């Protein structure tokens, strides 16, 4: 019943927004052939003068969330914090600066020698990672506006199979790799450009992105946090940090009584079950497979690198110069009308000749050969590590949150009947 | 889980944590170095502060560029 209400409410909110976007695309302003030119539309950026204050607010929000996760152990508190984050970091600050996007700024600072990153942006990148390194993914719990937004709409979450979860979660590694490739080759900040929520924060975007945001939110009602689990590139880094965190949320605040009530409480498949006394498989078989995967790892990485290298041509189309060059070439051979788009029309009007543009595009394509190989190698490494991880059986006595994938959202708290003094353990 | 095994795990985790912290510090130092500051976001439509500005052929960016160059 509640889920139906939420879907109706979301539909009422998002469909008119998408329709207005579509209407804007379908009905361009009339041209009366006058000398008057329409002024350019600029969206005013959010005030940047108080960037340091944003960093302070982020720190306070992270600290409060950590307290909620460890000391108060309050799911309600975390829920309220999510509302604050959506309101402040989302709608008021229009999703910028956001730690997810700051990953690319930092990549630009690393890959491009003359580029520097401001202290504010760096603090947005580093703070959630440091908190993850000590307390787990408290940033994802309720501080990240993207995660908080999805957490608020996850009304009737279903659990998908762990196997499907593993396959789909490769999406975030691919996205992280593509984002790095985009920055290193100068193609742009893909994560910001294709942020599905930015249109909602700013009450306007392209029709496609508004639709993507709406679809992800609707999907999020049933498949909780789809963006965080399967797409978020920053989530990869947070997960790596959280895996080695000093402290982490525990399901029972004191010794687990193995009542199994929490077993189905996590829609993110982030609770590891206790190791069964009698394993289905002979441990020797598992060890043999593990050895096989370890030895096969370099081959998997090499195959990934080769495939990535071979993919340089489609990958290079991420870059606007390459796309422009291809469009102009297609126009020149008659595959497209001359001046088929605003970009080609403008490019033809510039001082730069089309030959210069094509040679520039060729140079960029060459960069994508190297970048593609790195991307493929990285993805090969991830696949190899996942396969190795599958062959390991962790020895667990009680139900334990999986440190890398647990969002510390506290959904499991109400399911645990163990009452005790809350402690950091 | 035996105490010895737990200690070894703790030690390795602490070691990795230290390594990750050092890595973060390194990334921070490497990223802060540089003179050209990157715009905070790509979606502001504020072409003037866009780090990909020089390579862009969109008309509004060209206008801004011409204006800037005088």
Which keywords apply here?
heterodimer, A: 425 residues, mainly alpha, 2 domains, two-stranded antiparallel ribbon, B: 70 residues, 2 helices
Molecular structure report:
- The complex is a heterodimer of chains A (425) and B (70).
- With 425 residues, chain A is mainly α.
- Chain A folds into two domains: 2-25 and 49-261 and 400-415, no CATH class; 283-390, no CATH class.
- Helix content of chain A is 62%, strand content 1%.
- The longest helix of chain A is centred in the last third of the chain and has 37 residues, at 354-390.
- Chain A is globular.
- Chain A starts with a helix and ends in a 24-residue tail after the last strand.
- The relative contact order of chain A is 0.14.
- Mean pLDDT of chain A is 85; it is low at 41-49.
- By secondary structure, chain B is mainly α.
- Chain B folds into two domains: 1-33; 36-70, no CATH class.
- Chain B has helices at 3-32, 59-69, and one strand spanning 36-37.
- The model of chain B is unreliable at 39-53 (pLDDT under 50).
- Classes of the chains: A mainly alpha (425), B mainly alpha (70).
- Chain A binds chain B through residues 40-43, 45, 48, 96-97, 101, 105-106, 108-110, 112-119, 121-122, 126, 129-130, 133, 186, 188-189, 192-193, 195, 198, 240-241, 244-246, 320-321, 324, 342-343, 346-347, 350, 395, 397, and chain B through 1, 13, 16-17, 20-21, 24, 27-28, 30-38, 40-46, 51-52, 55-60, 62-63.
């Amino acid at each position: 019943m509640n889920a139906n209400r939420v879907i109706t409410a979301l539909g009422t909110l998002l469909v008119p927004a998408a329709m207005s976007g579509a209407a804007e695309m379908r009905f361009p302003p009339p041209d009366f052939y006058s000398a008057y030119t329409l002024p350019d539309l600029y969206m005013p950026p959010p005030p940047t003068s108080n960037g340091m204050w944003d960093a302070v607010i982020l720190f306070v929000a992270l600290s409060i969330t950590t307290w909620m996760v460890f000391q108060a152990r309050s799911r309600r508190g975390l829920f309220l914090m999510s509302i604050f984050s959506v309101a402040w970091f989302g709608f008021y600050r229009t999703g910028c600066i956001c730690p997810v996007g700051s990953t690319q700024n930092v990549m630009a600072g690393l890959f491009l020698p003359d580029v520097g990153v401001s202290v504010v942006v760096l603090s947005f990148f580093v703070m959630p990672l440091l908190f993850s390194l000590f307390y787990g993914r408290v940033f994802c719990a309720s501080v990240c506006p993207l995660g908080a937004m999805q957490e608020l709409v996850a009304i009737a979450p279903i659990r998908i199979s762990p196997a499907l979860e593993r396959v789909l979660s490769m999406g975030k590694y691919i996205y992280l790799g593509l984002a790095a490739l985009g920055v290193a080759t100068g193609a742009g900040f893909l994560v910001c450009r294709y942020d599905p929520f930015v249109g909602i924060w700013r009450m306007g975007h392209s029709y496609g992105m508004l639709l993507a945001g709406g679809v992800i939110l609707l999907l999020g009602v049933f498949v909780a946090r789809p963006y965080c689990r399967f797409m978020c590139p920053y989530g990869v880094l947070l997960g790596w940090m959280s895996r080695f965190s000093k402290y982490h949320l525990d399901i029972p605040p004191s010794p687990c009584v193995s009542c199994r009530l929490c077993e189905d409480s996590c829609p993110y498949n982030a609770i590891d079950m206790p190791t069964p006394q009698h394993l289905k498989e002979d441990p020797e078989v598992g060890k043999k497979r593990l050895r096989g995967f370890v030895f096969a790892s370099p081959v998997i990485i090499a195959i990934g690198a080769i495939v990535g290298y071979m993919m340089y041509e489609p990958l290079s189309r991420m870059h606007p110069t390459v796309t422009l060059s291809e469009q102009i070439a297609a126009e020149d051979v008659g595959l497209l009308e001359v001046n088929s788009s605003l970009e080609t029309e403008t490019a033809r009007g510039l001082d730069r000749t089309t030959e210069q543009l094509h040679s520039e595009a060729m140079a960029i394509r060459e960069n994508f050969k190297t970048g593609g190989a790195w991307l493929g190698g990285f993805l090969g490494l991830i696949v190899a590590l996942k396969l190795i991880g599958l062959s390991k059986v962790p020895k667990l006595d009680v139900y334990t949150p999986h440190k890398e994938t647990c969002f510390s959202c506290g959904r499991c708290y109400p399911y645990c009947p163990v009452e005790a003094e809350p402690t950091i353990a | 889980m035996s105490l010895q095994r737990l200690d070894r795990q703790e030690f390795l985790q602490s070691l990795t944590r230290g390594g990750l912290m050092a890595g973060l510090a390194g990334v921070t130092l490497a990223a802060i170095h540089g003179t050209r500051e990157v715009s905070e976001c790509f979606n502001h439509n504020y072409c003037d502060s866009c780090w990909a500005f020089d390579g862009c052929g969109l008309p509004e960016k060209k206008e801004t560029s011409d204006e800037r160059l005088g």
